[in-house]
Amino acid sequence: MGMQLREFAAWAQNRKILATLLVTVTLAIGIVIGTVASGRVGASHPAAGTDATPLAIPDPVQLSSAFASIVSKVQPAVVNISTTQVIEHRGQGKSMPPRGHGQMPPQDDQDQQPFQDFFNRFFDFPDQGPTAERSLGSGVIVDKKGYILTNNHVVDQATKVQVTLNGEQMPYTAKVIGTDEETDLAVIKIEVGHDLPAAKLGNSDSVQVGDWALAIGNPFGFLQGSVTAGIISAKDRGNVGQQFQRFLQTDAAINPGNSGGPLVNMSGQVVGINTAIITGGHGNEGVGFALPSNTAIGVYNQLIANGKVTRGSIGVSFTETQGSNPIVLKELGAPYGIVLQRVEAGSPAEKAGLQSGDVITSVNGKPVHTGSDLVNPIASTTVGNSIHVTYIRDKKEHEASLTVADRTKIFPDRTANGANSDNGPTPVEFGLRVEDLGTDRARRAGFENMKGVLVTEVDPASFAEDIGFVRGDVITEVNHTTVSSVADYRHVVSGMKPGQDVLFKIRRRTGGDQFDTVYLAGAVPAPEK
Hints:
The protein has about 525 residues and is an alpha+beta fold.
């Protein structure tokens, strides 16, 4: 074998050109074979330079601008309303305030609670006290001076009402001008120092079932400026709310947080104030209710003029389902009308000779087919003015003129409690209770080596709570001015004006002996008038 290799090497050495040619041919054949094989294996992948056409992003197509143009006109007038109500809790400890519909709890609530327990233990605070319950809603600006229509249930019993304008972050403290529980409407006002965009109210009597409608509001409190579309699915819907509530029904999505927002027609006019939903869960199921704008206008005009709504009455009571029963009406000799169940003693109706069992068939010449046909024209008549009624008794028609009286005087037990709280934040104390760090309980809590003032209490619904103060915070600076005592603190804050920005530098315990530096800031609120 070794002899054969030596002979081949000698042959190759003597014939170098021939050997080189042989090797080259062999390599060429291998390359050709490899190329063919790889081409077959990769045949499923497109090669460069195919005849495929590249895709391009097309020009935008404006399918319909109707909704968009309406939203651009009305949405700037829709506001977010946040209200705070102080609730007394006894025997349940002082916990973080509950959140209203749609308000997301801060992520650090769980982290702060253990320190609050620690603070209670060392500072000997009772395991009870008031907390702030918060709720959210919407509203619509109807006057450039800052007057806003919303629902009464959004601001009911609120200690503080704050309004955030569309596209802004900082809220304004609002004053409640007046409320009307009967229609669930309220008027509030904010002072911003300049004209505001205002929505135009339309005539809700022109609305037809099947008309398009847009609902604008702030569902769940954090989806600001949301818009939903639907149709008017019914009109004059009663038996849903109170006596003076006859609703427009819509399938435009209305969710918690939409209360008080506008229902808008295709002319960009507000035809309703979104008020209620019927739902088996916690959100929209396609049936929502808006108080008609014509009703809202009447209530608004009285609230801005008098701070309350006065309704006329003649002192009669009835049950609509029984009072309009066609068999009963037929037996009493009335083609239509409402049967009176009671006539109040001393009322205009009694003075005019009306009795229980009479059937009122018309008011001021207009036929009465429903309870609203009877109540609304009387309620809207100015107290002291007269109305004319036609009624049936013993199958005979009679007429009477009556002087309309104040409903609250005839039915005092039905009068809504319209008192409003004047409590609000003060520009000096901010809702903080502070003390020097040299006290015994401050030393027991481990603050003896720190400088500043110790926050021992934060009033619920106060400016301090709004910007994030908690008990146990140590204020070390106010607007970059060092604070070493309560006297220093009061001196710094005493000269602050409403609307001025204020920055607090604080030290906050995060566990054991560890403290974080935290900055809290806000605009000094104006005192309530």
